[in-house]
Amino acid sequence: MIEIDNVHKSFGALDVVKGVSLTVNKGEVVSIIGGSGSGKSTLLMCINGLEPIQGGQIRVDGTEVHAPRTDLNKLRQKIGIVFQQWNAFPHLTVLENVMLAPRKVLGKRREEAEEVAVRQLTHVGLGDKLKVFPNKLSGGQQQRMAIARALAMSPDYMLFDEATSALDPQLVGEVLDTMRMLAAEGMTMVLVTHEIRFARDVSDRVAFFRNGRIHEIGPPEQVIGAPQLPETADFLKSVN
Ligand code: ADP
Ligand code: MG
């Protein structure tokens, strides 16, 4: 599980995450919603140690992420992350792109890496695009390739940071469907999203971020369906 305990994060004088605590249990899907600049992406970066923190603690399966002795490369192998956009290597095929990390990071043999990559690409519906180059994929297919690439490392956790925000509206659904499938399979996920209806459908809990803090958290029927705080309600109105 992921245990975030009173985390503080600042960039110079700018306090961005101001005492956030959140535990994400195995198999749980937690969505983070909130306005631009509220610290959502920064918190995700802290979870896999891409950003140092100034206070508090984050533990992943009991390993303290920001402890000096922690092997971040090893930790990151179990945390897949998908951003708004992933720039695949243009000179490599889709299959080769997905094989790369299992080969280089996990040291898998070519056949083994290929087997995993084919399986994950097929899983996200790209089984017919293996030999294609990334620039021949639609934006939605590229994001599904990014998901397959993360899954090829056999992560225990998946973090999604606005994975559909850069997509044309008609391409959003296929990526959300892929994320929904992972959730249904029991993947532990933390996702930052503006797709409120999706968050409502797929999440066990929803956290509304405001000004570096979790302003309201609870099951989607509460936070989205019947927000207790006026700021949450205002935010939901603003995105609908
Ligand atoms: P969100 O994802 O909720 O839109 P972010 O976590 O990206 O918000 O950013 C929160 C605040 O931190 C913003 O004011 C942003 O400008 C600032 N910020 C984010 N990353 C950096 C950085 N690397 N250096 C300085 N400030 C940053
Ligand atoms: Mg962000």
Automatic annotation (TrEMBL):
Gene3D superfamilies the record matches: P-loop containing nucleotide triphosphate hydrolases (3.40.50.300)
Q: Which InterPro entries match?
A: AAA+_ATPase (IPR003593), ABC_ATPase_HisP-typ (IPR030679), ABC_transporter-like_ATP-bd (IPR003439), ABC_transporter-like_CS (IPR017871), MetN_ABC_transporter-like (IPR050086), P-loop_NTPase (IPR027417)
**Top-level taxonomic group:** Bacteria
User: One GO MF term, please?
Assistant: ABC-type amino acid transporter activity
Q: Where is the ABC transporter domain?
A: 2-236
| Membrane topology term | Peripheral membrane protein
Q: Which Pfam families match?
A: ABC_tran
UniProt keyword annotations, A-Z: Amino-acid transport, ATP-binding, Cell inner membrane, Cell membrane, Membrane, Nucleotide-binding, Transport
| Location(s), subcellular | Cell inner membrane
Where does the sequence pass through the membrane? none
* CC per GO annotation: plasma membrane
- Family assignment from sequence similarity: Belongs to the ABC transporter superfamily.
Looking up PANTHER family in the UniProt record yields:
AMINO ACID IMPORT ATP-BINDING PROTEIN (PTHR43166), GLUTAMATE_ASPARTATE IMPORT ATP-BINDING PROTEIN GLTL (PTHR43166:SF9)
The entry's protein name is Amino acid ABC transporter ATP-binding protein
Q: Which organism is it from?
A: Metapseudomonas lalkuanensis
